[in-house]
Design brief:
Elements (H helix, E strand, L loop, with lengths): L1 H22 L4 H22 L4 H25 L3 E9 H13 L4 E7 L5 E10 L3 H10 L4 E7 L11
Antiparallel strand pairs: 1-3, 1-4, 2-3
Length: 164
């Protein structure tokens, strides 16, 4: 039963990672994960089908559940892909924050917009790898109250992220 559990945890983790790779249009890792997942799944299914009792079926299902959970945790740690962060500030504060971020090496594009009652606002647009968001978020929090939106990006041409 432990083998069935472990195999299904591994197979489900691989399926989650395969989905992440597909969503980021990274095809080569999809081939590898699909092949390994197929082997693991078939062997686990064979062990389950030749075993008797409801316990084996429950262990099979529990392995799938734990695999999805573990795969999600791995994906969060990898933070694969790109994001776009839009930060909204009042004009002077926005200029200062944009310059601070640029001095830290971030590529920042600014535009002027208008908020409630037509008050001028600065919008800072930063494109970076997902795994760099926590560092950026700490910089933004240190600046004070920040309104922002975070969006996933599937593809970018040109400069991305922090300049070294």
């Amino acid at each position: 039963m432990i083998i069935i559990l472990g195999l299904n945890i591994l197979a489900s983790c691989l399926k989650n990672l395969k989905t992440v790779f597909l969503s980021q249009n990274e095809i080569k890792p999809v081939y590898i994960t699909t092949f390994i997942d197929s082997l693991v799944f078939f062997y686990a299914f064979k062990l389950t089908s030749t075993s008797s009792g409801m316990a084996f079926i429950l262990v099979f299902a529990l392995g799938k559940l734990l695999g999805v959970f573990l795969g999600n945790k791995i994906e969060q740690k990898l933070a694969y892909g790109l994001i776009e962060v839009d930060v909204y500030k009042h004009s002077e504060e926005g200029k200062i924050l944009a310059d601070l971020l640029r001095s830290q090496g971030y590529s920042v594009t600014t535009t002027i917009g208008y908020g409630i009652k037509g008050i001028e606002r600065f919008m800072l647009r930063i494109t970076l790898p997902r795994n760099g968001f926590s560092t950026l978020h700490e910089l933004l929090k240190a600046d004070g109250n920040v309104n922002m939106s975070v969006k996933p990006i599937s593809q970018v041409y040109g400069k991305v992220g922090v300049i070294n």
